[in-house]
Amino acid sequence: MSEIRFRPAGERAVLVELGSTIDETLNERVRALDETLLDSPFPGYLEAVPAYCSILVFYEPRDITFEDVREHIARLAKGLEKVKLPPGPLKKIPAVYDGEDLEEVARLSGTTAEEVVHLHAGVEYRVFVVGFTPGFAYMGMTDEKISLPRRSTPRTRVPAGSVAIAMGQTGIYPQATPGGWHLLGRAEHRTLFDLDADPPSFFLPGDRVRFVPVEALPPYEPVRPHSAASTAMESAGSASFEVEDGGLWTTVQDLGRRGYQRYGVPVAGAVDPLALRAANALVGNDEGAAALECTANGPRLHCLRPAIAAVTGADLGAVVERSDLGRWHPPPWSAFRLRPGNVLSFEGRRSGARAYASFRGGVDVPLVLGSRSTYQTAGFGGYEGRALRAGDRLVLGEAKDVTASLGSASPPAPPDDDALRVVWGPQDHDFTAEARASLTSSTYTVGASSDRMGYRLEGPVLEHRDRKEIVSDGMMLGGIQVPPNGLPIVMLADCATTGGYPKIATLVTKDVPRLAQLIPGEPVRFRAVSLDEARAIYLEEDGATTV
What we know:
Elements: E1 5-8, E2 13-17, H1 24-39, E3 45-50, E4 54-59, H2 66-77, E5 90-95, H3 102-108, H4 113-121, E6 125-130, E7 137-140, E8 155-158, E9 162-166, E10 169-172, E11 177-179, E12 182-186, E13 208-213, E14 241-245, E15 249-253, H5 273-283, E16 291-295, E17 300-303, E18 307-315, E19 318-322, E20 326-328, E21 335-338, E22 343-346, E23 351-359, E24 393-394, E25 420-424, H6 433-441, E26 444-446, E27 454-458, E28 473-474, E29 479-481, E30 489-491, E31 498-499, E32 503-507, H7 512-516, E33 523-524, E34 526-528, H8 531-539
Parallel strand pairs: 5-13, 25-34
Antiparallel strand pairs: 1-2, 2-4, 3-4, 6-7, 6-13, 7-10, 8-11, 9-10, 9-12, 14-17, 14-24, 15-16, 16-23, 17-22, 18-21, 18-23, 19-20, 19-22, 25-32, 26-27, 26-33, 27-30, 28-31, 29-30, 29-32
Helix pairs in contact: 3-4
């Protein structure tokens, strides 16, 4: 058995590498280690993301150190080379081969479209990884004749249900997303990720898959109502707010959903969990109650029932419009009362990027996979899986303590050093010494295309050593991945659970909210700290957080 490598991925995760190639035997060892770890977890184990030849393991630093995690996993890994897992079930997938790239694939492979269909459907595939988006299965290997690289120019939108190939792999897109694979056809996608199923992903690592060419797809017959279709529908008398304007991008968020990254579901949740916790504390909620994350400019909410509110995070100019008493600016980071007829709105950004509006009782939307957070990419959670818009009506939950007093707090003091702290790795060895030096000595700016999935930075290019892409592995919050163009992208709450670009460093958890409060054009600097320093920062009483 090759040597197992343990690479820090920030102070809350470790990347366990069993190899560096796409290989069925290696992938079987990854699955065996994952199953063994689930059966024999260490204190503080949170969850894991098994990939092709590695497994990303998340843990709670308050309960265990990196060294103890490494020792536990190394002990479990002994003897895995002798483990033989039973073959997974065979799943036959009807597919219509009418894809946009079918003829181009035939041309590039020096064959005909009919032969491409024959080659694609003539192989029994193995599911190596579930990741990228909820329910997306990476399957291999395709026939060598159609083993093509990614498209030179990725599409901005690949239709849901597309059957695609690239790099010897094939897969079906469960949702419409950007993508750079070649489209051969389409299959039924609505069964690939089912929020009401356990597990929610139709495909699991180890499954065997065959595509069956058909002229038309069988009719789709849902077995049960889908949780994503459940909304906060309510009678007119129970709503506490009516949305008059949704603002630029206002979503319902809590502290996110844990335990589903192995199925391609990100944790999501507030990108500034410290501000969310503070807002909930001010109104007497549990720290993880659902609130509104308001981006750049906030919504306009017409109050229908008495409510207690607080706004923390960015200063977006919160104002209460009162017909009898006029406009009033509530004190920042303080709880205040709203009466029926009042309107809570925001005059405009003064500082920061995201404010959190919390209400006593919390925003009451359905739990989806254990969380009320919105995950826009797959369209579930929050309010109908989307940002708020005019006409929506918000219901509040039952208050935990109706006698709780109105709280107030001070915003976090600005740091003495505005540089964001990072831990090297997990793939800093894939970069030149000059690249490492450049990351911590240069000033970057937040790019215009930054969002909740990740912040794209503009500035000096970071040079890779040899490989500019890696065999896809698990992705972590705060990971700084560097695509072939050399410009870093910092992963945020909605990031994909797996990725194929090297990650030069990982932000310490406490500094992720600081990054998330920046807007495009603002500067970003980084400073490297040791893993022990990062853990000490995490354990500081005023900054400890679990996201």
